[in-house]
Amino acid sequence: MELKSQIPNSKFQILRKQLGRIGVLLGGPSSEREISLKSGHAVLNALREQRLEAVEIDIRTTNVEENIRLIKSYNIDCAFIALHGYFGEDGQIQEILEKLKIPYTGSGVLASKLAMNKIASRKIWQENGLNVPSYIVIKKSFYNDFIEYPNLKLPWVVKPSSHGSSIGLSIVDNKQDLKKAIDLAFSFDETIIIEEYIKGRELTVGILDDEPLPIIEIVPKKRFFDYEAKYQTGLTDYIVPARLEEDLAKKIQNDALSAHQLLGCVDFSRVDMILREDNTVFILELNSIPGLTNTSLLPKAAKVAGIEFNQLCLKIISLAYEKVKNSLNV
Predict the structure, then answer these.
(1) Which of these, 2, 81, 129, 210, is most buried using a 10 Å CB contact count?
(2) One domain, residues 122 and 223
């Protein structure tokens, strides 16, 4: 599969000079810090292996002024954001980089905020004809020990509204277990979602340079693709490309691209989906900065499309430069 995402070798030397000193932002203060460190170090190594000047910038606080001082101290020309979750994917670090007039990878402030907020993104998708699971929203400030059971068919999925990596997520099979699941989700977020569990095939579609990559089917050996299944070797099988009829695969890719574009996302993302047994496609969430290691899902799909990990990282950082060039009309 040949994509426009591939960079001809003839342009490589010019691109290296244009990018200058690259700061890889990693770590962060969120519950996904450890995953971000893995992504960031993988990206850092990939850029350095291509003889690009890349430095590690460990984000440890949400304090805006401290982060401004930290980032300025590295005197970077461009930022590769490898932060996951809060203060990485939610627009906050993007706002800081825009204040500093530093080009950065991935989506802008508003799109990042929308993608991080499962409620806001689902409303946009629903309004534009994409399927999402039936769900209700509960705010901690209005919640007490009395539980009003959702008018949704069991099982239920309970999860925080603004976290990734399945952190704080539970599947509830009976009403007696609902409070425990709610309390767990509230320990990570002030707003949570209870949605109807959809039995089907777990799929994910990476987007690169605003084009869909081959579909990956996720086959966890546990009941669902939880944190452990995502990050512990051997607990999940991945089929890429997913075994799907051509027309159905095309629809899934188109839906994923629509989900990406409707939020205003650019350059790259990953859209998680469920294919119900009747072949109805449901959008679960969009990750504006998905995992970026050699074994992460977006790189797996890119590799099948003929894009090795080092080239993927180079492409993502080059897209940050392209945005600046386009804004200046040069």
Answers:
(1) 81
(2) yes
Q: Is 175 helix (H, G, I), strand (E, B) or coil?
A: helix
Same domain, 121 and 268: yes
Does the annotation mark 90 as catalytic?
A: no
pLDDT reported for residue 233: 57
Spatial separation of the C-alpha atoms in residues 250 and 157, rounded to whole Å? 28
The whole-model pTM stands at 0.87
Give me the catalytic one of 165, 170, 269, 318: 165
> What is the C-alpha separation between 326 and 103, in angstroms, rounded?
12
Contact 287, 89 (CB under 8 A): yes
Q: List the structure tokens of 193.
A: 């979602």
Least confidently predicted of 157-166, 173-182, 196-205, 313-322:
157-166
Using CA atoms, how far residue 249 sits from 11, 18, 245, 256, in Å, is 33, 37, 6, 11
Is 40 in the active site?
Answer: no
Q: What is the chain's alpha carbon radius of gyration, rounded to the nearest angstrom?
A: 20
32 in catalytic set: yes
Question: Do 56 and 32 share a structural domain?
Answer: yes
Q: In this predicted model, what pLDDT tens digit does every residue of 2-49 receive, in sequence order?
A: 445 555 555 555 566 778 999 999 999 988 899 999 999 999 999 999
With 70 as the cut, is the pLDDT of residue 57 above it?
Answer: yes
Name the nearest CA neighbour of 260 among 159, 114, 161, 160. Answer: 114
Residue that terminates a domain, selected from 150, 178, 196: 196
> Residue 83: which of 290, 321, 314 has the closest Cα?
290
User: By the 8 A CB rule, do 313 and 292 touch?
Assistant: yes
Instruction: Give the rounded distance of the alpha carbon of 46 from its chain centre.
Output: 20
**Where do we find the tokens 């069991």?**
154
Same-domain status, 183 and 204: no
Catalytic: 272? Answer: yes
Is 162 among the catalytic positions? no
| Amino acid in position 286 | L
Of the candidates 39, 272, 288, 318, the residue annotated as catalytic is: 272
Asked whether 18 and 321 are in contact (CB, 8 A), the reply is yes
